[in-house]
Structure formats: structure tokens, C-alpha cells
Amino acid sequence: QGSEEAKAFVHAVLKRSMPQMKDEAIQDMLTRKALVLEYYPKKKTKQKRKKVKGFTAKQRRELRLFEIEPEQQRYAIFLPLHELWKQYIRDLCHGLKPDAQPHMIQSKLLKADLHGAIVTVTKSKCPSYVGITGIILQEFKHVFKIITKEDKLKVVPKLHNVFSLEIDGFVSYIYGSKFLLRASERSAKKFKLKGTIDL
């Protein structure tokens, strides 16, 4: 294109881009040899992300997600889990040395994962629970599911029960009434030392 055609083209573009401006103003802008065209981009509509919802408690019960099949309810199957748990606690407490301070180990056990631990019900308001010993298979907010040496799955409530837990000669007591938390919530909770604890 020649210079005249180019000038006419630019003038037409400017006129179309800025219809509110007069010809004199457009001509004035062209003499400065610098021009900023206004551009109004289309507003993009943000797509709302759908939150991925998990199963409800009712759906989990219907699907039997946390059920342990009868043929799997055998003490011997879960002994390797107990061995793994012991190693986990030793690593957590830096070896459980004889000179370790008991309250330090106790504070770590309060927040530790108990799946695989062997516990015994030492005190209970219900005498039939006293003496139950086994490996913790599942921990819920209000109950422990324990497999005994007799291959029986026991559901023991935490409330009004005291559990003892022994590892490498160190015995710790769990007051179930103060332990009414899920395992995931317990790891973040700050426990306060209390002088006396009732069932």
C-alpha cells in the first residue's frame, strides 16, 4: 500500500475503534506518531469447580467398608502388624531406653497410632470387659475393635474403661473416657496433665 492508502486505512481503523472521538482529535493523535488503542476484553466466566464428595457415614455402612470378614478374623494374621507397630513406637520414642523419661514416652504414645498395639482392659465399669487382651485392629471415636488370641473380634467401648499397653517393659495406661477421639484428631490434640482421672 502507498502512504495515502495506509493513512486512510489507519484513520478508518481509529474511527471504528474510537467512534466517540472527532476527526480533529484523531488527526492530532496521528501527528504524535504514538497511539494506544483501547481494548475491552470479554470477561471470562469462571467455571465453578465441583467439590469431590466422599461417602457419607450411611454409605460407608451400607458398603461395609470397615467390616472385617469372618475368615480374616484370626489373631495370627495380625501378629506381623503388631511387630511393625512395636518398631514404629521404638523409632518414635528413640529406642525406649531405660533412662528415658516416662512422661515423655507417655506424651508420644498419646498421639501415636495404636493400630497393631496389644492392649488389655484392666479396669471397667462393666466387669465382663476386664481381662480382654488383643491386638487393636480398628480405632474409632468411641470404640476399639480388638482381635483376641481366641480369634474373637471384640468391640470394646472407650468410655468407662482403662486399657494397659506394654512395650519393652514400659507399661502405659489409656483412660478411655479421655480418649474419645478419632486417631487422626488425636495426633493434633494437646493433652493436659491431670492429677486424678476417674473412670
UniProtKB/TrEMBL annotation:
<keyword id="KW-0597">Phosphoprotein</keyword>
<dbReference type="GO" id="GO:0005730">
    <property type="term" value="C:nucleolus"/>
</dbReference>
<dbReference type="GO" id="GO:0000172">
    <property type="term" value="C:ribonuclease MRP complex"/>
</dbReference>
<dbReference type="InterPro" id="IPR002730">
    <property type="entry name" value="Rpp29/RNP1"/>
</dbReference>
<dbReference type="InterPro" id="IPR023534">
    <property type="entry name" value="Rof/RNase_P-like"/>
</dbReference>
<dbReference type="GO" id="GO:0030677">
    <property type="term" value="C:ribonuclease P complex"/>
</dbReference>
<protein>
    <recommendedName>
        <fullName>Ribonuclease P protein subunit p29</fullName>
    </recommendedName>
</protein>
<comment type="function">
    <text>Component of ribonuclease P, a ribonucleoprotein complex that generates mature tRNA molecules by cleaving their 5'-ends.</text>
</comment>
<dbReference type="InterPro" id="IPR036980">
    <property type="entry name" value="RNase_P/MRP_Rpp29_sf"/>
</dbReference>
<keyword id="KW-0819">tRNA processing</keyword>
<comment type="similarity">
    <text>Belongs to the eukaryotic/archaeal RNase P protein component 1 family.</text>
</comment>
<dbReference type="InterPro" id="IPR016848">
    <property type="entry name" value="RNase_P/MRP_Rpp29-subunit"/>
</dbReference>
<dbReference type="Pfam" id="PF01868">
    <property type="entry name" value="RNase_P-MRP_p29"/>
</dbReference>
<dbReference type="GO" id="GO:0001682">
    <property type="term" value="P:tRNA 5'-leader removal"/>
</dbReference>
<dbReference type="GO" id="GO:0006364">
    <property type="term" value="P:rRNA processing"/>
</dbReference>
<keyword id="KW-0539">Nucleus</keyword>
<dbReference type="GO" id="GO:0033204">
    <property type="term" value="F:ribonuclease P RNA binding"/>
</dbReference>
<comment type="subunit">
    <text>Component of nuclear RNase P and RNase MRP ribonucleoproteins. RNase P consists of a catalytic RNA moiety and 10 different protein chains; POP1, POP4, POP5, POP7, RPP14, RPP21, RPP25, RPP30, RPP38 and RPP40. Within the RNase P complex, POP1, POP7 and RPP25 form the 'finger' subcomplex, POP5, RPP14, RPP40 and homodimeric RPP30 form the 'palm' subcomplex, and RPP21, POP4 and RPP38 form the 'wrist' subcomplex. All subunits of the RNase P complex interact with the catalytic RNA. Several subunits of RNase P are also part of the RNase MRP complex.</text>
</comment>
